[in-house]
Design brief:
This protein is mostly helical. The chain has one domain (13-207). It is built from eight helices and no strands. The chain has helices at residues 17-37, 42-65, 71-74, 76-92, 100-124, 129-150, 165-181, 186-207. The longest helix is centred in the middle third of the chain and has 25 residues, at 100-124.
Length: 224
């Protein structure tokens, strides 16, 4: 496999703006709900919603790619939609459980879509393939990771549970395999990967497929 490819040959997958904004709204809403459950004030609710809604893309553009301001800073709609998501989360609260399946479906599509988009954009910026795969995973799961860190929780992606980060990793690797190795178009590769990711996430939720701990958690006190 070619580990560095010319940016002009990179497989760029374009996300429709309506999907990007819609997913941002839903992710921000979940951040707002978490903040409400923890008793945050209006600043805390808005801040956590912004982090969850925009965190993955912010890490991608600001930390790894570094080609000018992040997308959320050049298009005001991202922050506006994230704040609307925060308001929706604050207003709905526990009633959002009625929309649990819809949110889970959007999240399942978004997981593959953002993994694919992150890989393509990273390759286009000149990152090596392994780094692009890493950025794809962070782009897909970074918002939830930031949420857990900010709220002083052990990140869910580190604990045994339903397949999530591993699904994002598989999506990123498959996209690279299809585009770089098999020479499929970015659109075809991205569509297939998103479809497979969605299917696997839905099956994981339906049948409660989970990862397992590599070793029992230690109960011994930390070494001094």
């Amino acid at each position: 496999m070619t580990f560095v490819m010319p940016p002009n040959l990179a497989p760029i997958f374009h996300l429709p703006i309506w999907f990007d904004l819609g997913a941002t709204f839903c992710f921000a809403m979940t951040g707002g709900i978490v903040a409400m459950k923890r008793g945050y004030d209006v600043v805390g609710v808005a801040s956590l919603a912004l982090l969850v809604g925009l965190g993955g893309g912010l890490i991608r553009d600001g930390l790894f790619i570094q080609q000018g301001p992040p997308a959320m800073a050049t298009d005001p709609r991202y922050i506006q939609v994230a704040l609307l998501g925060a308001c929706a989360g604050a207003l709905l609260g526990d009633r959002v459980e009625r929309f649990r399946r819809v949110i889970a479906a959007i999240d399942a599509v978004g997981l593959g879509a953002y993994a694919v988009f992150g890989v393509g954009k990273s390759l286009g910026a000149g990152l090596a393939v392994p780094a692009a795969v890493l950025v794809g995973v962070i782009n897909a799961a970074g918002g939830g990771l930031l949420r857990d860190v900010i709220t002083n929780e052990e990140p869910l992606v580190f604990r045994p549970g339903q397949f999530y980060a591993l699904v994002a990793l598989a999506a990123a690797v498959l996209f690279v395999t299809f585009t770089v190795q098999l020479r499929w178009s970015a659109t075809t590769s991205g569509s297939v990967v998103i479809g497979l990711t969605f299917l696997f996430r839905v099956l994981s939720i339906a049948f409660n497929w989970k990862t397992a701990a590599l070793a029992p958690a230690s109960t011994a006190p930390p070494a001094r």
